[in-house]
Every structure is written in structure tokens, then in C-alpha cells.
Specification:
Blueprint: H1 2-16, H2 20-29, H3 45-52, H4 55-69, H5 71-79, H6 89-95, H7 99-107, H8 123-129, H9 133-140, E1 145-147, E2 153-155, E3 160-162, E4 169-171, H10 183-189, H11 196-199, H12 203-213
Antiparallel strand pairs: 1-2, 3-4
Helix pairs in contact: 1-2, 1-3, 2-4, 3-4, 3-6, 4-5, 4-7, 6-7, 6-8, 7-9, 8-10, 10-12
């Protein structure tokens, strides 16, 4: 246990410094370090790598987590792990506009349904808030898919989920956050509704949001 904590702490420090080669060495020797997180703020190597745009480290950490725990537990303990603010690696990558990290996380099964603690915003809300069309496209593009618990694979944009009221069933792309805003509302308010960010949404969704915001 002590060795796991030591290797995890070392890995986190190396990721903070962007030392890719040294971090990969730790992961090769101690793959369980991929799932390390700090006690107070629940920070982890993957969260730091995603937030800072180190996509090669993101991929290496995810692969190590799968080796150590298998795909299912790797998603739970590493890929979809959240910090004390409820931020997952996917949310942080979208928040800071790191589209390569978003792509790597989506391809490895990161859940776009995670909600942060403060606004109940999804990764798509954060991508829209950051005005990052590349990140929005990674989430809404035709190749962006998500496997449901039933085994069915659907486009991320079309994932059925409960809206903020906890009763209304909506598509992921149309989910409101705690402030009553959909991701496209945010894009429009930010002035990017008619740019690459806004154009990444399905046309019907764009029209509805523009009417509501108009």
C-alpha cells in the first residue's frame, strides 16, 4: 500500500512538471499508480494531464489503469474519477480547450454525463463556455459514441439522460445545467453561436436555442 502511495505521489509530481518520459517509466513499473489521488482535493495524475493538455500522458495513464484493474474498474477509479469540485478529466480537458485529450478520453470510454458540483454542468457545457469548437466537435461529431449500460452504442449527442429537474428525459446535447442553460445557450451568450462552436450542434438544436436566446 505504501509503495502504491509513493509511486502515485511521484507520478502526480512528474505529470505536474510535464515530464512525460519519467512519468511513463513510473507507469510501466507501477501501473496501479494511474489510479492514485490525493486525500483532500482528490487530484489525480489523469486530471492534471487532461487539464494541462498532455495528451500522450493521458493515453499512457489510461492504458496503465486498464492494465492494473481491467477496463470496467479503470473507468470507475481513473477515467471518470472526479476531484473535490466534481471535475472529471473530460470536463477539465474541455474547460481548457485540449481537444486531443478530449478525443483520447472519449475513445477510452470517458463518460460525458458527469456533472460538476457547482453548476451541474457537463463537459459539453464547459466546451461551449470555453468557446472551443474542436472540443465541441469531439463530443458531437459523428464518430463520438458512447456505450450505454445496455450495451447499445449511441452518438454522444443523442444519449438519453434526465434533465436538471430529474424528471424530464432529454438528449445529452439539450441538457440544462443548474442555471437553466443548455450548452448552446452558453455558446450564444459567449458570442460563438454562429461560429464553429455553434455550427457543431444539430440544426434543430441551434434554431431552438437561438429562439430562446433571441
Amino acid at each position: 500500500m505504501g509503495n502504491c502511495h509513493s509511486s502515485g505521489s511521484k507520478l502526480l509530481a512528474l505529470v505536474h512538471c510535464g515530464q512525460t518520459s519519467a512519468a511513463k517509466e513510473v507507469l510501466e513499473q507501477h501501473p496501479v499508480a494511474a489510479c492514485y489521488s490525493t486525500y483532500v482535493d482528490k487530484n489525480s495524475p489523469l486530471l492534471v494531464a487532461a487539464g494541462r493538455g498532455h495528451y500522450r500522458l493521458v493515453q499512457a495513464i489510461v492504458e496503465a489503469a486498464v492494465i492494473a484493474h481491467g477496463p470496467a474498474k479503470a473507468k470507475q477509479r481513473c477515467i471518470n474519477h472526479t476531484n473535490h469540485k466534481g471535475h472529471s478529466a473530460l470536463i477539465l480537458a474541455c474547460m481548457h480547450g485540449h481537444s486531443q485529450c478530449v478525443e483520447a478520453l472519449v475513445c477510452n470510454g470517458a463518460s460525458p454525463l458527469v456533472l460538476d458540483n457547482s453548476r451541474h454542468s457537463t463537459a459539453l457545457h464547459w466546451a461551449a463556455s470555453a468557446c472551443r469548437s474542436e472540443c465541441v466537435q469531439q463530443l458531437l461529431g459523428s464518430r463520438a459514441t458512447f456505450q450505454m449500460q445496455s450495451g447499445e452504442v449511441v452518438r454522444i449527442a443523442d444519449i438519453p439522460c434526465f434533465d436538471e429537474d430529474g424528471r424530464t428525459l432529454v438528449k445529452y446535447v439539450d441538457r440544462h445545467n443548474g442555471w437553466g442553460l443548455t450548452p448552446l445557450h452558453i455558446a450564444v451568450f459567449k458570442g460563438s453561436g454562429s461560429t464553429g462552436v455553434g455550427k457543431a450542434w444539430p440544426r434543430t438544436t441551434r434554431v431552438q436555442a437561438l429562439i430562446c436566446c433571441g
